Amino acid sequence: MIALSLAEIAEVVGGQTHDIPDPSVQVTGPVVRDSREAGPGSLFVAFAGERVDGHDFAASVVEAGAVAVLGTRPVGVPAIVVDDVQTALGALARHVVQRLGATLVALTGSAGKTSTKDLIAQVLQRKAPTVFTPGSLNNEIGLPLTALSATEETRFLVLEMGARGIGHISYLAGLTPPKVGLVLNVGSAHIGEFGGREQIAQAKGELVESLPEDGTAILNADDPYVRAMASRTKAKVIFFGESGEADVSAENVRLTDTGQPSFRLHTPSGASDVTMRLYGEHHVSNALAAAAVAHELGMSADEIAVALSEAGSLSRWRMEVTERPDGVTVVNDAYNANPESMKAALRALAAMGKGRRTWAVLGKMAELGDEALAEHDAVGRLAVRLNVSKLVAVGGREAAWLQLGAYNEGSWGEESVHVSDAQAAVDLLRSELRPGDVVLVKASRSVGLESVAQALVESGAEGEVSAR
Predict the structure, then answer these.
(1) In 308-442, which ranges are E strands?
(2) I want to staple 71 with a disulfide (CB 3.0 to 4.6 A). Which of 36, 46, 100, 283 is the partner?
(3) CA distance linking residue 43 with residue 32, whole number of Å
């Protein structure tokens, strides 16, 4: 964080200082909420959760070097006491962002946010110091913590914004007002909570509504819900996608033998060739979104193409590919799942597995509401249409729907199987995998199927395989 004294922080957050001998002492380290991350010069934010109360760790974080605690009660060590820690954290983030000379880029969408954020960050880092959301810390706590990690040297701040209801993105954009706002898509993720795509579009569009007149909205021309958001902003609009009206587009899209996309990138400043290290054709759209951001921030087509070609995956369990010594390829995409990302992962599996046996180890897609049965059925059917060699549906009711879809599409039991849990999936794979097979593992985060992928990777060519 930029250096601020405890007196300044107390004023910004409207708090009272307690047990602080010298209010001029500065916070020069990070702002953290995990006591294990506290170190010299840091500020510890004490949240009181259902199971753990951060205030209980006050003494230990100060002993580790933290300058003070931001909490809701005195704790016997230097502290700034406020009525609401989350509100105070947001106020501090807004203050720091206003002090920075950085350009703030915010993005949202139903699928691909984290992968696209990682691409944008890796491209912009080639131009100037860039801070970006780690993993998927895109909510009312993770976003301000990311913003507070910026320093005086930061020139680009790339923030992923998630939403589970109307007003969430407006709130986040109020904490960290963006200059560039990117909307990727409007899909089915969390449709059970929102109630429908129209409501999801309403929520995602709050990002472009927050942009200033001298800002830029970057919109997916191929998604009608997103394209329509152009009317909701006073900012300049740049479109990306395959549509004829796209300002940033891809030509001659193809997949390499290993399933990595290659294409010619077109931007208003020129064209250049890209061959990505990431897997799956769905990353083309993500790359175009990143390219549109980079173009708007002054990078040439050649600079963008080189950066996209060299960019890798920065976040765990997202199309994470491991080649075992025995020739088995494990694709761990188990961080999360929704209908759009599940279908994209299956297409990537089919491309990667040409001429090889392919396995789709799939589990529940959460928060789909009344659409759950139809969406799981559709994924099961797609696995058969893509000629996936074996669908392993893991879990309860939703997994049964996955297998039912495959069965109804023409898989009469030989190409699909329903197992009860992760260990059962591992046992099956242990007995049937052969050198050269490609295994995709994917489900919503709550299912925990990463244990299957991890067990397969750890087993290698020999030894026991077990889910933990």
Answers:
(1) 320-323, 329-332, 358-362, 390-394, 416-419, 438-442
(2) 46
(3) 6
Structure tokens at 113: 């946010």
How sure is the predictor about 4, in pLDDT bands with cuts at 50, 70 and 90? very high
Backbone angles phi, psi at 349, to 5 degrees: -60, -45
Digit-coded pLDDT (tens) for 51-77 = 899 999 999 999 999 999 999 999 999
From residue 310, alpha-carbon distances to 156, 167, 297, 337, 443 in Å are 20, 37, 19, 26, 28
Q: Are 220 and 240 in contact (CB under 8 A)?
A: yes
pLDDT of residue 40: 96
CA distance 411 to 362: 16
Q: Which of 76, 77, 62 is nearest to 32 (CA)?
A: 62
Size (the chain), residues: 468
Dump pLDDT digits (tens) for 234-282: 999 999 998 888 999 999 999 888 889 999 999 999 999 999 999 888 8
Please name the residue that has the structure tokens 């058969």: 384
| pTM of the complete model beyond 0.70 | yes
Residue with tokens 């390499």: 256
Mean pLDDT in residue range 410-424? 84
In whole angstroms, give the CA distance from residue 338 to residue 319. 14
